[in-house]
Amino acid sequence: MDHFTYRNGRLHAEDVAIADMAQQIGTPFYAYSTATLERHFNVFAGALDGLDALVCFAVKANSNQAVIKTLANLGAGADVVSGGELARALQAGVAADKIVFSGVGKTDEEIRLALETGIRQLNVESEPELERISAIACEMGVNAPVTLRVNPDVDAQTHEKISTGKLENKFGIEWTRVHDVYGKGANLPGIQMRGLSMHIGSQLMDLQPFRDAYTRAGDLVAMLRADGHTIEVLDIGGGLGIPYFEDEEALAPSPADYAQVVRETLGGLDVELVLEPGRMIAGNSGILVTRVIYVKEGATRTFLIVDAGMNDLARPTLYSAFHKIEPEAEPAPGTDLIDADIVGPICETGDTFAKDRRLPPVKAGDLLVMRTAGAYGAVQAGTYNTRPLIAEVMVNGAAFAVVRERMDVEDIIALDRLPDWLED
Ligand SMILES: *Cc1c(COP(=O)(O)O)cnc(C)c1O
After folding, report:
1. Number of structural domains, the chain?
2. Distance in angstroms (rounded) separating the CA atoms of residues 301 and 319
3. Which has the least CB within 10 A, 66, 141, 181, 248?
4. Using one digit for the tens of pLDDT, what is the confidence trace for 321-350?
């Protein structure tokens, strides 16, 4: 369910015409729908009703201040994976005691920042990290609230680049070693062991891996308690998949089905649950709006060359991801479709958004919209080919506001410095 629909033949975000926004701020740009964000958060949180659960939005999916604040206003916490994201969450108004810090490579500075600001917990991924946190906490004279991230060794059956819960992945502590490492943590000064955490991957379209991982987590909690440890928290990560195209709609597990798995595997465990959904909340809440620069009739195919590139939306290049692409102008019923490759202007063959996509005929100057671009879109953007980061816009009913300014080429160049031997 989202709020991007055709009205009188023109695509709208809530009550705002995409074409009007494009006219005012230029293309390409990301647009987020407040109503969709809110709906997704409320449906997800609502599905967990009756459980002792805190939903911490995974900020890495979309770290715009306006997005984080919209969710924080609904009661969301934040899952962060860097000092930068921690700063973003705090600045957007997420209370420190609702922030959890994940990630395999926390630096001393990041650990210090986490302890200074008093976040809810650090999800620890290795023994050296545990020792480092202990040393820093002692130095600062504080106790660090910690969960141990378990690698449950389950196959999330998702894209290899976003699969995180197999033993060969870099994440977490092998579940067979959790017993020893937890005991070690409990004896370290400056460490307050609060429980376990896990995150097995992203874009999971099957609930079975969750069921397997959560069952294993429940067993580990029971084992640790039998050993005399207090386990207050179980952070079960994010990863719930979403439909990117029609055929997936029937397959994508609903938040209600997912919550049922959580209830069945962990409902009776008497722990406080933390959940870290990212994509599920933000994915369908955003679109990328782009303009066709040229229609190029190649030797064997038609290319629609658009003004967005792989530096703006990397998912197709990075994960061979599918994004639904729609014209801003609704095609008349019965319009003959064409097959086209939709490509960006960047000097890489990988700068391709879609191949052999069936679309109504489009001409130069027309607007196209890439759907489901609200998660892992703007956050992965870069400035390759000296292309400025594009604008982000948030829509709320009939209102819209630029929530990140488009960068200038000058801003990019101004970061460079000439060494003295090259100065005139
Ligand atoms: C990426 C990530 C998430 C969010 O994953 P989604 O698939 O967007 O729900 C949650 N927790 C951790 C630790 C992550 O790295």
Report:
1. 2
2. 23
3. 141
4. 999 999 999 999 999 999 999 999 999 989
